[in-house]
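Q: What does the predicted 3D structure of Ribose 5-phosphate isomerase-related look like?
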Amino acid sequence: MDIKTIAIGSDHGGFPMKSEIIPFIESMKIEVKDVGCFNTESCDYPDFAEKVCNLVVSKEVDLGVLICSTGTGMSIAANKVKGIKCALVHDHFTAKMSRKHNDANVVAFGGKVIGIEVAKEIIEAFFTNSFEGDRHSRRVNKINQIEEKQKQKQN
């Protein structure tokens, strides 16, 4: 496993699961940068998605993990950051394939959708698989081209 450091963030809905998943990640000998939130008081998930994603695109961390109630809001916010491919996953298979076929660099899931054991399976699959390249490179390059076209339209 080449993963040395990850960033993790949650909103209030994902905070309880984040608190449980951090020790599991640390048991894998991976450094965890927790960007918040740090309690169950209502807060805004885009703030934490952006913090995690900025660490990923700057290469200060290897991968990102985002947790809110459903994972949906976090994944939408994360995918607004140039260079991020955030996968909303619900099981081991989708986590594994998001890395192998889609070169995802951030994973999102719902703390109120899955249990802690499934979350651990997701983390393990996401961290231990890597991009296969080959025919998948062509497809990921097309995703990157969409991002570039949108950037050019804004300028």
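A (community wiki): The structure tokens above were generated from the sequence. The chain is about 50% helix and 15% strand. The longest helix spans residues 135-154.
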